[in-house]
């Protein structure tokens, strides 16, 4: 497997607001669910569904006051997790816009991590949640940032054998999730020692703030007309806090990995608009890192806006090398 391309039809359907699909997305995963395990509630989360029948991929759905529906997470365990007794580092992988917690399983994450001594956690982030607490919602709470940082991470550390520390965690993501990974890494400096952004925007304000406008327009579909950053006037402090290019010093002493496409599909306007901004923003970000003397690894690849699994194969080894060993 060399790449994962979400279909244009699937993206357009998701952007059309079919968020109800998330509520049933885990049905197939539950088919092999086993009896109760030690994994339980806590940190404001109540487990309402679980699937622990597969030896590696475990699934949970939660009730939480931070989200107005029941978000889910896939937890991919190392091959020897049940027999080794070892403690493992964790990689959090954030899906793209229109995706869900199963996105990376569809992309072949099990094969890509086979034999690797790392836990991979893949949570829901809302179809267009932008890994943020929105300025305004008309459909109840959609506080994805609170859910991930204040609830899910401590829940994972409490229920699995993880290194609950800076050198025990990495984060990555695709597209909207690549932005979320960069954002969380800077905003929560002591949480993640490595960040990987696959076609993730790194600059919110460039070109008149096109990425902020895009975040507001798309998030309005999930928020019943509410927005992540506010309209007609942005919450400027929030934009600054979330904007990777305005948080350069927060990436010091971290491993940084980035990928962007250089030749988006000239016919597909969605692909062209997204990857054009991604590439320009990542180049701006890299220039600022260079000026600050902060090392990184960056790749530019032909093609447009899709998750490049061929780069993930090398990235996962770099992540494991950076983190505390199992």
Question: What is the secondary structure topology, with strand pairs?
Answer:
Blueprint: H1 8-15, H2 20-24, E1 46-51, E2 57-63, E3 72-76, H3 81-84, E4 90-94, H4 103-106, H5 109-112, E5 119-123, H6 144-159, E6 169-174, H7 176-187, E7 194-198, H8 206-222, H9 236-242, E8 255-261, H10 269-292, E9 297-301, H11 309-322
Parallel strand pairs: 4-5, 4-6, 6-7, 7-8, 8-9
Antiparallel strand pairs: 1-2, 2-3, 3-5
What does the model show?
The structure is a single chain. This protein is an alpha/beta fold and 326 residues long. It has a single domain (8-322), classed as Rossmann fold. The chain is built from eleven helices and nine strands. The chain has helices at residues 8-15, 20-24, 81-84, 103-106, 109-112, 144-159, 176-187, 206-222, 236-242, 269-292, 309-322; strands at 46-51, 57-63, 72-76, 90-94, 119-123, 169-174, 194-198, 255-261, 297-301. A nine-stranded mixed sheet has the order 1-2-3-5-4-6-7-8-9, with helices on both faces. A hairpin with a 5-residue loop joins β1 and β2 (57-63). The radius of gyration is 18 Å and the shape is globular.
